[in-house]
Each structure stands twice: as C-alpha cells, then as structure tokens.
Design goal:
Helix content: 40-55%
CATH superfamily of the largest domain: Vaccinia Virus protein VP39
CATH architecture of the largest domain: 3-Layer(aba) Sandwich
Distance between the termini: 55 Å
Number of strands: 7
Strand content: 5-15%
Radius of gyration: 22 Å
CATH class of the largest domain: Alpha Beta
Strand order of the largest sheet: 3-2-1-4-5-7-6
Number of domains: 2
CATH topology of the largest domain: Rossmann fold
Oligomer: single chain
Largest sheet: 7 strands, mixed
C-alpha cells in the first residue's frame, strides 16, 4: 500500500518554513521525534502531572500533543504568535475533546512577555526559540522568565552552539541564529539566573540547557544532569557499537572469534 497520501498529509514533501502546520515549525520528518525528546527530557528532569508548564513558542503543539494529555487540567500554558498553528495542531493532532477536558491556555504574543498568564510555573520550555532569536530577544525572554519561575523551577531551552555569536537584531527563520555557550551563560547570568548544559539528543544537533535560580543549581540537580549525561553517552556508545557490528568485516571477525572459541572449548 502506498504511503504517499499519508506523507502528503503530514507535510513530508515540504521544506521547513512552508505553510503547513508541521513544516512551518521545522522539518516535518522530525516532528514526532522532537516531540518525544521534549517530553522525555522534561519528565526525566522531574515534570509530573501536577506541575504547571509554560511552553514558549508552542507552535502547532508538537510537544503540546504529549504534554496536554499528560498534565492535569489547567496546567499547560502555551505562547505562540501564529494563531493558525495552534488551531491546526488542535484540529490535526489533539481534537477538541481533549481541549475541553484538559483546558490548556494559549496567548498569541510576539514580545517574549511571559507574565501574560498572571502566574508562576514549575517548568518552562523553549524548544528551538533561542536557535532563531537575537541576543536582545533571548535577554527579554530570560528576564521575563525569571519573574514567572517558581524557586524550584527549571527552564529548558536549546540553541545552535557555535564559536561565534549572531549579532543581528531580528528573528531568523528560515535559517537560524547561533551562540557560544559562554555567551549564553553570561547573558543568562545578567538576569540573575544560572545556566547548565544538558547532554540530550536532538535530530539537528541543537544544544540543550537548563536555566535555574542560582540556589537551585544544587548537588541534587547536578546529579540529575550527570545521570542524563551518562544515559545519553551510553545510548550514543550503543548506537556506535551497533553500527560497527553491522560492518561486513566486523561480522566476519566476530564469526571467526566464535569459531575459535568453539574449537578451544572442544579441546
């Protein structure tokens, strides 16, 4: 059976930035895996159903389609300038019934004002926001985030790591902005917050960071980060091992080793 109609429906024939609810937010082929990576990272960092989550630039609810059913009613909040993306995400990925049950809140705002909901949050997420934003926009976002973060809050974001910094003043999409880790650390520190890198995969290589209040950067959180790093490195090592073991010469070598081991045991 041909998958052509399904591929067309999911926008897989389109390029990032095309006006399709999946393609507009990034490459449509990565829509599902990016959603899963966001969800698993936040739950690994402690997100539970009773927490309040602010999804900055929630787009077509790529991650929201997992977070909204998981969280208790009135616990998911999304900011997205493009209203049509949220509408298409609800229509194609969630359905109106789950919106009625879970009661997420949405605001269409371009100013990085995170105080529009009038409440504080346990977790904040900015998936592929800093990878398109100017330094001034990131600064505004982090400054506003500090005002809505609970003392124990974790703000997870990602960006394109480089050895130079984007110096423009505008949002860049399609395409993107890029920064050094040291630059982002200093920019975040200016707002009275601390930044810690997270070793977590991303299909296009974005670098994950956790932004927290300085007194939250304690030993327990550092141990959690170390555990995530160990798991990510283990998974990467296993993937490399599987790739090596699939090479024809390695397969021959392994077969010869098993044959020699059998001979030795028979002796």
């Amino acid at each position: 059976m041909s998958l052509q109609p399904i591929d067309a429906q999911l926008g897989k024939h389109l390029q990032p930035g095309d006006r399709h609810y999946r393609a507009f937010v990034s490459h449509p082929d990565n829509y599902d895996i990016v959603a899963a990576l966001q969800f698993t990272l936040l739950t690994a960092l402690g997100l539970r159903e009773h927490h309040y989550l602010l999804d900055i630039g929630c787009g077509s609810l790529r991650g929201g389609r997992l977070f909204i059913p998981y969280l208790l009613p009135n616990h998911y909040f999304g900011i997205e300038p493009e209203a049509w993306l949220i509408e298409e995400g609800i229509r194609n990925e969630l359905g109106e019934s789950i919106i009625t049950i879970k009661k997420p809140s949405f605001v269409h705002d371009r100013s990085f004002n995170l105080e529009v909901f009038g409440r504080k949050f346990d977790f904040l997420l900015a998936q592929s926001i800093f990878s398109h934003a100017s330094a001034a926009q990131i600064r505004a976002c982090v400054a506003s985030a500090r005002k809505v973060m609970e003392p124990h809050a974790i703000f997870v974001a990602n960006f394109v790591e480089s050895n130079v910094n984007y110096e423009g003043d505008e949002w860049v999409y399609p395409g993107g902005s890029y920064y050094t880790m040291d630059f982002l650390r200093s920019l975040i520190a200016e707002q009275g917050l601390a930044c810690m890198p997270i070793q977590w995969p991303h299909p296009v290589g974005l670098r994950w960071i956790a932004i927290v209040h300085p007194d939250q950067a304690n030993q327990q959180l550092l141990r959690d980060m170390d555990l995530l790093t160990i798991r990510a490195e283990r998974d990467a090592a296993l993937a490399r091992l599987r790739q090596l073991e699939s090479h024809p010469y390695v397969k021959i070598g392994l077969a010869v080793r098993r044959w020699l081991q059998t001979l030795i045991r028979r002796r």
